[in-house]
Amino acid sequence: MNIKSILIVGGTGMLGEPVARRLAKDGYKVRVFTHTLEKARAKFGTEFEIFTSDVEDPALLEKAMQGCWGVHVNLYGGPDPDLERRGVQNIARAAVKAGLQRLTYISGATVQEANTWYVGTRAKFEAEKAIRESGLPYTIFRAASFVESLPQYVRGKQANVIGKQPFPRFWVAAEDYARMASTAYADPEAANKTLYILGPQALTIREALQAYCGIVSPEAKVSAMPLWMAPIIARLFGVKELANALPYIRYSETVGESGDPTEANALLGAPKITLEQWSRTQAAKVEPPPRELKPAVQGDGSSSAV
């Protein structure tokens, strides 16, 4: 039996790791391509073969792909969103040279030409174009918001929504997405498709946070911060993470997720995990606080901790 090898670019990420583990569970041999060896070893140990480099090194990309059947791309440019475009272009070229048979890529549910005024969307749009023009059989997943992002909004007893954020998001669990991505490798009908991965519920960020916090962090209060205040807070308190997120926050204030998931659901099986179900699994993982030791008076008048 010839076991197919899949290279996961960005395999240590929030969405790359679940795909790597699901592919392995489904019988594929998995390689992880990352620029952080320590992080990869901490997550996977010796479970997967690990290649360390970056996506702007075409020679090492091609080397990592030798002997592989497919490559799955999970990229995040962070402060350099155009890295996603450059990286995917390099990956597509290397995949052609290495003779791969399938290329899959996670994009976003707001990606369309009308929204390319935002640099992050433009990078994804151009990345999709490079994949389609590569000539390789591909599957592009235009995925909605992931429930795994919700904890990022919570700090202690406060959960902040910045701006009005009026658009519902079709929240999907990474577990469902990973299953669908793995299924796409096994189904020839999924080749040369751009598929929308939308979860079973449409909720605004505020509604989703209220549901999440109600189960996982009942003590957390969900509140809204006016958009105009966010850059002031970021500057005054030196919150670099917030400053870096502001362009996307402004983007999501004006652009909602869209797309028809019918074809994806028919080919790959619809996402089924609800926000409430996922939140309960997270709550079950939270360790209860240590029991407070209280002095108890003994018969001789001394005390002991119980």
Quick overview of this protein structure:
By secondary structure, the chain is an alpha/beta fold. 40% of the residues lie in helices and 20% in strands.
Q: State which percent range the strand residues make up.
A: 15-25%
The CATH superfamily bears the name NAD(P)-binding Rossmann-like Domain
Look at the structure and give the mean pLDDT. Answer: 92
Radius of gyration (Å): 22 Å
State the end-to-end distance.
Answer: 60 Å
> How many helices in DSSP terms?
11
- Which strand order does the major sheet show? 3-2-1-4-5-6-10
| Helical residues, percent | 40-55%
Outline the biggest β-sheet: 7 strands, parallel
What would the CATH topology be? Answer: Rossmann fold
CATH class division: Alpha Beta
Total number of strands: 14
Number of structural units classed as domains: 1
Which CATH-level-2 architecture?
A: 3-Layer(aba) Sandwich
Q: Are there runs of 5+ residues with pLDDT below 50, and where?
A: 293-306
- Tell me, briefly, the overall form: globular
Structural class: alpha/beta
- The ordered H/E elements are EHEHEHEHEHEEEEHEEHEHHHHEE
